[in-house]
Amino acid sequence: MYSNALKAYESVDRTTMSGRETEARVLTKAALKLKSCQDSWHTARREEKLDEALKYTQQIWNIFQAELSNKENPLPHQVKLNLLRLASFIDKRIFETMAFPSPEKLTAIIDINRNIAAGLRNTPPDVQ
Fold first, then answer.
1. Which of 17, 36, 77, 87 minimizes the number of CB atoms within 10 Å of its CB?
2. Span 44-63, mean pLDDT?
């Protein structure tokens, strides 16, 4: 079921990169894809690029949701709950953007992805 979602981790060498760094990397990639769509909103291939960026982001957050729902996940309950709520918000925003596209709707997803990635790397979000 998650075979397509696992492609979100494409070309990442897990033997040399920590799980946190892998997660930060794919979140950053998702943010960059969405930002590229936002910056080139009025181009001919916008719909195709937007669809690809939204689906990529959705796959990443689907993996996170599955991992957070796993009873073996070592994160504290409240942290898991907060991240699942955030994932729910992302899902809603993605579906809303798919139904009624506008570049402004991407800002929240971009910011969340960047901030979570920065936290995983333990760096301030404005450094990216």
1. 77
2. 96
